[in-house]
Design goal:
The structure holds two protein chains of two kinds. Chain A is mainly alpha-helical. Chain A has 29 helices and no strands. In chain A, helix 17 runs parallel beside helix 24, helix 20 crosses helix 24 and helix 28 packs antiparallel against helix 29. The chains are: A mainly alpha, B alpha/beta.
């Protein structure tokens, strides 16, 4: 039993390393209550500062562990990863190795068949989509549809995990669910796209077995939560969320979609609700069958970049909030929109359904506004109609991105808060207007890319035998994008000390006892192993010239 | 961890000599000793005054006696003895001070009966007003005698308030250190202080055997960077002698404080015990047990007014049920019941 300053995040939250997000959050909440300032039980237990520090660290732990991405990294840093990864790999590998090859082949075959069927399928799909839309409309009121179907935020994590697990458990199977993305772009380069995406999905298949950083990271870690999430047992919602992304392509471009749909979207009941939303964009579609070239190009770019950057997707955290305002803004734009599109918001189920669609589409305008102010509501309203074809493409990157980025969807700051919106957006995404969607997608991708650029070094390559001198600590800090001041604020170590540590000014540093505390704190803040850092640094420190005296 | 800074100077001879009668040594002997049954010592402390230590002691004694055990209650609240009042025993003819000062040889000679079958009492000192200031030799005599007494299955020590060494030493010889706490900041504060003091007292007693004298002194006198927890102490010892550290750790872990939350008025109050256990473990890495809570009950107050144990007066009251639960838990903690151990 260690004093809490040395406890791992798991020990700190009193959860097993295999705990699910829900368990972690519950434990965190319980402990926050227990250590709340007015809690009798901790009165005079330690210094108030200590309790504060403990709370802070517990928050940190919760944030870290509920962020799938950071959790992997943390696990690795405390040497846990190997077990977890091994465990994950065992399950994933077992499934993958045996089945992936067969599944991929199978999926390819299905895809081919699907392509052949494409033309006919489109109609069938559309019919089905419409009927589903009606069903959904009768159930949901027009405005609330999108948020509702995307589910309560609370469930979102499970769903996310469900998605992850899906991807992990049946990566071979899921592979086709990614492809639709490129496919839909033109409907022309389908085969190439498929091939490309297969290579990509294959990389997903293999990732779990090798602890890659970068793009692997998000995926690698997924199996563990996936395994855990089975316990939470909300498989229906899980699939539901997985389905919109996949179902959407299904209705929009049947060619690509037929593959994923039967595979992953088909079975769950909630999935149908969500699926009903997915078809929504396809409603306008029949009217404008031709994708606007420009849009499709952009979409292609978008999807390309999405493809090219699974790792960026991992860092997609920041962009997720952006789409979020969408649904909030809906009420404002909705009326204007629906008028423009001439879908009367009549009370008939169908009409209201379409209204819902249009409103949701309209929503994307305000969302887009900050991103691309050039587009105002009216233009979008007009543009939307002609460019519907493109919207599919545009929508796709949006939808697919969340899928890719799922592991990262828990932002380090407010995992819960962000997660909900993310999932909601997933649902909304189907209905986004093409232009705005493109813009959103682009800006989001840009953000993702930017984020990735700065986040990449997060995993500063630290050899296992590295000496943690000031230089390395500085590099890690800079890699995290933290200034000395920020670090000082968070660790409550003075700027002077931090500077001295980073500059290896041993003589100016306090004695070992204090320095160790500083280093541990610092390392913790930087996501490094406190013990290792302090040990390593103190070793250097003790070799300092004798004149320094202590 | 300022609370660990116990400025009270230690009589230089105390640690070393006390080590001879240290709790674990004494208790380690007892099971194989002459005692025909498993004899258990329960100490009831709490740091703060007026939190119901005597009420809990008296009623636990009654509960255990009713369950068929032979129980000896000892009023170790040397300066403020009133356990006899809780039990409705009038001013006793012989008291602890007879044993301590008048040369009575055995505890049996100063025992008085309580009217409850199986429950006898050694009342606290009534006469001498300086009874609280037990001389070191007297304390040693009492501790030795308590540890070696064989007449009862359960020996319950009702301790006084505060964290004086006299109190702590009685607490530490017990198998079950019951810590009575009210769900109030004042009581919780004193309870934590009491436990901290007890553990470091224990370290002082063991330090001579482990050569960690300096360490403990350091822990008691350093504010920052010193040894904050027992874990630190063990780690230090380990650096010196790994085998000793293990033994020390075992000994430290063997002593478990058991919490009793008294006067719980709300459901939240009842959870304070569990919360304290959790927080204590988090901060100091030491396990405590939560034995359960006693509901605030006017019946308890009325019973005291009548100078009767509430367990006899109102066996059905909430507080009585709670007391029975705690007694049952204590018995179950001791594993096979004494009856089954009877030859």
């Amino acid at each position: 039993m260690k004093p809490f300053a040395q406890q791992t995040y798991y020990e700190l939250l009193e959860v097993p390393p295999t705990a699910s997000d829900a368990e972690i959050l519950a434990a965190h909440q319980r402990l926050m209550e227990l250590y709340s300032p007015d809690s009798i039980a901790v009165y005079a237990l330690g210094d108030p500062d200590q309790v504060d520090a403990l709370r802070e660290r517990m928050n940190e732990a919760m944030e870290m562990l509920t962020d799938a991405d950071l959790r992997v990294e943390y696990d690795r840093s405390i040497g846990l990863s190997t077990e977890r990864l091994a465990k994950a790999a065992v399950t994933a590998e077992a499934a993958d190795k045996v089945e992936s090859a067969a599944r991929v082949a199978e999926a390819l075959a299905t895809a081919a068949a699907a392509l052949a069927k494409a033309a006919g399928a489109v109609d069938a799909e559309r019919l089905e989509a419409e009927s589903r839309l009606k069903a959904a409309a009768s159930v949901n009121d027009s405005e609330g549809e999108a948020p509702r179907e995307s589910g309560t935020p609370g469930k979102s994590e499970e769903r996310m995990r469900g998605e992850e697990s899906k991807r992990q458990e049946s990566s071979g199977m899921d592979a086709p669910s990614v492809p639709p993305e490129p496919v839909r772009v033109g409907g022309v380069a389908v085969v190439e796209a498929f091939r490309a995406s297969f290579t990509r999905s294959l990389s997903f298949v293999y990732v779990p077995t090798s602890p890659l950083r970068g793009q692997g990271r998000g995926v690698v870690e997924a199996p563990a939560p996936a395994v855990e999430s089975e316990a939470s047992g909300t498989s229906a919602p899980e699939q539901a969320i997985a389905s919109p992304a996949e179902a959407a392509p299904a209705t929009v471009n049947a060619a690509a979609a037929t593959v994923p749909e039967p595979v992953s979207a088909g079975d769950s009941t909630p999935a149908q609700d969500v699926a009903a939303q997915a078809p929504a964009p396809s409603n306008p579609e029949p009217t404008e069958a031709t994708p606007s070239p420009q849009a499709s190009v952009e979409a292609a770019e978008a999807s390309e970049s999405a493809e090219a950057a699974p790792a960026p997707a991992v860092e997609a955290v920041t962009e997720t909030p952006a789409p979020q305002p969408v649904s909030e803004a809906s009420a404002v734009t909705a009326p204007a929109e629906s008028g423009a599109v001439a879908t009367s918001p009549e009370p008939t189920p169908e009409a209201s359904a379409t209204a819902a669609v249009t409103t949701t589409q309209g929503e994307s305008d305000p969302n887009l506004a900050p991103v691309a102010p050039a587009l105002d509501a009216s233009t979008t309203a007009l543009a939307r109609t002609p460019a519907t074809g493109a919207s599919r493409a545009a929508v796709r990157p949006l939808t697919s991105r969340p899928i890719d980025s799922r592991p990262a969807a828990n932002s380090p700051t407010g995992p819960r808060a962000v997660k909900g919106p993310t999932v909601r957006k997933l649902g909304d995404a189907q209905v986004l207007a093409q232009d705005s969607a493109i813009a959103t997608a682009e800006s989001a991708l840009a953000q993702v890319a930017a984020k990735v650029r700065e986040a990449r070094p997060r995993g500063v390559d630290i050899p296992s035998d590295a000496e943690f001198n000031g230089e390395l600590l500085r590099r890690v800090r800079e890699a995290r994008g933290m200034s000395i001041q920020q670090l000082a604020d968070r660790t409550r170590i003075s700027v002077r000390h931090l500077e001295n540590v980073e500059a290896d000014r041993y003589t100016a540093l306090p004695t070992t006892v204090y320095l160790r505390g500083i280093l541990m704190n610092l390392a913790r803040e930087l996501g490094l192993d406190p013990l290792r850092v302090s040990k390593s640094y103190l070793a250097l420190f003790s070799e300092k010239p004798a004149k320094s005296g202590r | 961890m300022r609370a660990f800074v116990k400025p009270a100077p230690l009589p230089p001879s105390a640690p070393a000599s006390l080590a001879g009668t240290s709790p674990r040594q004494g208790n380690d002997v007892s099971p194989s000793g002459p005692a025909p049954r498993s004899r258990r010592i329960i100490a009831v402390g709490g740091g703060k005054g007026g939190i119901g230590k005597s009420m809990v002691s008296a009623n636990l004694g009654v509960a255990l006696a009713q369950a068929g055990h032979k129980v000896l209650l000892v009023d170790a609240d040397l300066g403020g003895a009133n356990l006899h009042t809780c039990l409705g025993v009038g001013p006793p003819e012989s008291t602890l001070s007879d044993f301590l000062r008048r040369g009575k040889a055995s505890l049996e000679e100063v025992m008085v009966s309580t009217g409850v079958p199986g429950l006898s009492l050694i009342a606290g000192a009534q006469d001498s007003l300086d009874a609280a200031n037990l001389k070191y030799a007297q304390k040693q005599k009492l501790l030795r005698t308590l540890l070696s007494q064989t007449t009862a299955d359960y020996l319950i020590l009702d301790l006084g308030a505060g964290t004086s060494f006299n109190t702590l030493d009685f607490f530490l010889i017990a198998d079950h250190g019951l810590l009575v706490v009210l769900p109030e900041p004042t009581s919780v504060e004193n309870a934590y202080r009491f436990v901290k003091a007890a553990f470091f007292r224990m370290l002082q007693q063991t330090e001579a055997r482990y050569g960690i004298q300096d360490l403990v002194e350091g822990a008691l006198s350093t504010r920052e960077g010193g040894l904050r927890t027992l874990h630190d102490v063990v780690a230090q010892v380990r650096r010196k002698a790994p085998s000793d550290a293990e033994r020390l750790e075992r000994e430290l872990a063997a002593f478990r404080v058991r919490l009793v939350v008294n006067q719980a008025r709300t459901d939240a109050d009842e959870k304070v015990g569990a919360a304290m256990v959790s927080a204590w473990k988090k901060f100091f890495g030491i396990d405590m047990d939560d034995l359960g809570a006693l509901r605030y009950d006017d019946e308890a107050w009325r019973a005291v007014r009548k100078r009767k144990p509430v367990l006899l007066e109102r066996p059905d009251s909430l507080v009585s049920q709670g007391l029975q639960r705690i007694a049952a838990r204590l018995v179950s903690l001791d594993g096979p019941s004494p009856e089954s151990a009877i030859p």
